[in-house]
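I hope you will forgive my troubling you with a question about protein structure. You will find the record immediately after this paragraph.
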Amino acid sequence: MKIRIKMMLPVILLFLALLAVVENNVPQPNRSFSNFSADFSYGSVDNITLVLNCEYPRVPDKIPVLKVINRNLTEEEVLTIAKELFNFTGEVIPRPRGEPEVLALEVTDGFRHLVVFNCGAIEYSEEYGGSQCSGKVPSPSKCREIANNFLNKVINYGLIPKNLLIEVEYYYDNVGMTTSTDIAEYVESWAVHYKVLFNNTPLQGDVGVSVWIGSNGRIVDFYGDWREVEFGELLEVTVTPEDAFKSLTTKYGLMSKPSKIIINNIYLSWWADSLLNKQTYLIPVYVFEGIAIFSNGEKLDYVRSLTATNLTDKEIGGFEQVLNLKGSMRFSSMHNGFYVVGITVFAVRKDVLNICFRPLYSSIFWCNV
């Protein structure tokens, strides 16, 4: 009996040692909330249930900002871009007009508008009823091919940021402008959208690329809302991903309060402020991706960015993204005699319209001309 116990003792000790190693390496559920479940991470605060359906990211002690580098193209260079890429010319107008600091140069012939921003972004738009012609919009697959070819043309022209860490990646495509009659609705354009990535991470905020294809395969709108950037100063990460996650109960960023938010992915990225504002750097943020659920059972895709450092950006609060990407649409309106276009990305419920306006066509900034 003693011999048997002596032979089993090393086996028992080995088993206990292995068990300890396994427990130390398996991610443990977060228990920051007093009522967090041991088998699934969730908690309820202010009548909003937060569900963490992923692991928290590993966060460094410091992370760099991305410094925005101005290009400051001349009027002659902007006119050349208009002629060679978009086949038109016109008057060059500094924007905003009458202000001491110019953020962009616009070329316009009254119907077409090319805006080249100092930060590197470039936007082109045709007013509806201007140079549009009759004909059919190509199929979605053909529109994607046309959009890819034109984007490559813009890239080869040298207008994409020179930083090799910047990449453009296809995201999705959808119906752009439509017109309706009593008997039918007609597609006037098809929109193809792309993410802008820095070091393989999608940038957040007013950033992205969209190519709009109209009748006969024409490019009717182009939004290259990227930035020319480089690494800037290192900032200390002062907000943990756990604290940022918990703050979603009060900073959920929706016009209507959800009953539950399920987060399926969390990562660090950088926030690009609106092109309408001067921005000297892109600040580090946590990005939360998941689903928001309302008390009536309706759901929408959810994306939220929250600062990760002491460096805050007031625009994040008012420019938040809660995106139902399949519901993207283009709208137009007259404002003070100037044609304004843009993309509204929205999530629709029966009792409320949650709107996140992303002013891709930046004439909105100077619509008081």
